[in-house]
């Protein structure tokens, strides 16, 4: 009877858990969740920083936040959404939906809530993982062992916070997007936003709240997805400016930029992304995250090349949605049961390097989007080991993430659309 521990009861962790529950015979499955309900990032906390248990707040979502991808990208294949959103949905709606999935699929009884994993390591003598876990209610500590470990603790818990020369002299407020909870901090303020994706979501929230800011400048260094960049150039908001530049230094309220300009600001928001960090894993079980889009040590994006009993889910940044997590969960179950063969370590590492190389060679141009989608389709076909999976079906899963840009892009490109995408979907 194989024993498996899944760390994290978010959308991805539950997707994996259901596939393990139904595909691994006689499995003893336990899901550890730090909070008192499921949802992962959508388990929103009212405060930033340190939570009521003295631990860093896990969720980077703020109260009232809407998804920044279309709602259907979070839909499980075995649990249709009651509401069919055409665009975005509130985060609490997604949390309730994920909770319904957990209850209806028999996963909730398998979850140990309010359990914090302090440390996880592999015992070479026992050929098992050892987990040191704290019950956050009674503060008691326990040591448990499992044959397999699935890390589903998310990738938005550890903010990437760059430091700029002289920022300690800044008299105003400096926050990372992870700690953003309300746009009232921008009221009547001169705001500098760094980054593009996270900062863009916060900008949308600020505009939606009708917060009366003084001025907002959003700066960015580089955007791999040129479609996003082209759309953003057409944003027309009052007292808002978008500029491609970098901070050189900060002197009191004055920020000096690489393009030779400077400005006075009251608030600096760092939408500068996140670091891949799994604090409970010992160093020899960590993965190389030099290239954030992929983790260099994961075969098929899920299995650790150096320990074939350790798995990760939802750890890359490309086309993230529930359908992909379900397929990754299937891959984990098939690798554990031997349906998918585990190659030698050298072959696994070679496969990882080849996938990263293929992805990086795709030009970051608008029509490169279809190429990226094709590359992801090929990956998912390999993940599932199912040669009957059609590119068309996979493309339809991912097209939802891009439909929100279609109108702006069509205008920008003088009515042209993506010929590769159209061809792929029409076949």
Question: Care to describe what's here?
Answer:
The protein is an alpha/beta fold and 427 residues long. Helix content is 28%, strand content 21%. The chain is built from ten helices and 20 strands. The protein has helices spanning 11-23, 91-104, 197-208, 226-232, 322-337, 345-360, 368-384, 391-399, 406-412, 419-426, and strands at residues 3-7, 28-32, 111-112, 115-123, 128-135, 141-146, 148-151, 158-159, 173-176, 190-194, 215-220, 240-244, 247-251, 254-257, 262-264, 267-270, 274-275, 298-299, 303-304, 307-312. Strands 3-2-1-7-20-19-18 form a seven-stranded mixed β-sheet. A five-stranded parallel β-sheet has the order 9-16-10-11-12, with no helix packed on it. Strands 4-5-6 form a three-stranded antiparallel β-sheet, with no helix packed on it. Strand 10 (190-194), helix 3 (197-208) and strand 11 form a beta-alpha-beta unit. Helix 7 runs parallel beside helix 10 and helix 8 (391-399) packs across helix 10. The longest helix is centred in the C-terminal third of the chain and has 17 residues, at 368-384. The radius of gyration is 22 Å and the shape is globular. The protein starts with a strand and ends with a helix. The relative contact order is 0.13. Residues 387-427 have low confidence and may be disordered.
Task: Briefly characterize the structure.
The chain has 427 residues and is α/β, with parallel strands linked by helices. The protein has helices spanning 11-23, 91-104, 197-208, 226-232, 322-337, 345-360, 368-384, 391-399, 406-412, 419-426; strands at residues 3-7, 28-32, 111-112, 115-123, 128-135, 141-146, 148-151, 158-159, 173-176, 190-194, 215-220, 240-244, 247-251, 254-257, 262-264, 267-270, 274-275, 298-299, 303-304, 307-312.
């Amino acid at each position: 009877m194989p024993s498996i521990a899944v760390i994290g009861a978010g959308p991805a962790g539950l997707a994996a858990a259901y596939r393990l529950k139904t595909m691994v015979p006689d499995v003893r499955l336990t899901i550890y969740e730090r909070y008192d309900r499921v949802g992962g990032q959508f388990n929103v906390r009212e405060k930033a920083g340190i939570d009521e248990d003295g631990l860093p707040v896990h969720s980077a979502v703020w109260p009232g936040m809407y998804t920044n991808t279309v709602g259907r990208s979070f839909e499980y294949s075995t649990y249709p959404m009651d509401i069919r959103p055409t665009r975005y949905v509130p985060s609490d709606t997604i949390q309730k939906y994920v909770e319904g999935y957990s209850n209806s699929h028999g996963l909730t009884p398998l979850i140990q809530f309010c359990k914090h994993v302090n440390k996880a390591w592999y015992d070479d003598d026992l050929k098992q993982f050892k987990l040191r876990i704290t019950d956050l209610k009674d503060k008691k500590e326990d040591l448990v062992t499992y044959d397999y470990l699935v890390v589903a603790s998310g990738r938005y818990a550890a903010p990437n916070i760059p430091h700029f020369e002289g920022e300690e002299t800044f008299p105003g407020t400096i926050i990372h997007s992870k700690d953003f909870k309300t746009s009232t901090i921008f009221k009547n303020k001169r705001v500098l936003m760094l980054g593009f994706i996270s900062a863009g979501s916060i900008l949308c929230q600020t505009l939606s709240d009708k917060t009366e800011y003084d001025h907002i400048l959003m700066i960015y260094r580089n955007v791999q997805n040129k479609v996003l960049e082209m759309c953003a150039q057409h944003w027309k908001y009052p007292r808002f400016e978008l500029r491609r530049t970098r901070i050189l230094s900060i002197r009191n309220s004055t920020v000096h930029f690489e393009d030779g300009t400077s400005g006075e600001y009251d608030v600096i928001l760092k939408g500068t992304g996140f670091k891949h960090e799994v604090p409970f894993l010992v160093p020899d079980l960590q993965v190389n995250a030099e290239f954030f889009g992929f983790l260099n040590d994961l075969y098929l994006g899920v299995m650790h090349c150096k320990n074939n009993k350790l798995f990760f889910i939802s750890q890359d940044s490309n086309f993230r949605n529930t359908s992909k997590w379900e397929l990754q969960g299937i891959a984990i179950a098939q690798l554990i049961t031997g349906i998918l063969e585990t190659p030698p370590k050298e072959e696994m590492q070679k496969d990882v390097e080849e996938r990263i190389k293929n992805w990086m060679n795709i030009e970051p141009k608008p029509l490169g989007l279809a190429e990226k989608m094709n590359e992801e389709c090929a990956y998912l076909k390999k993940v599932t080991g199912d040669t009957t999976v059609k590119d068309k079906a996979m493309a339809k899963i991912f097209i939802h993430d891009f439909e929100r840009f279609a109108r702006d892009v069509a205008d920008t490109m003088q009515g042209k659309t993506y010929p590769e995408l159209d061809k792929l979907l029409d076949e």
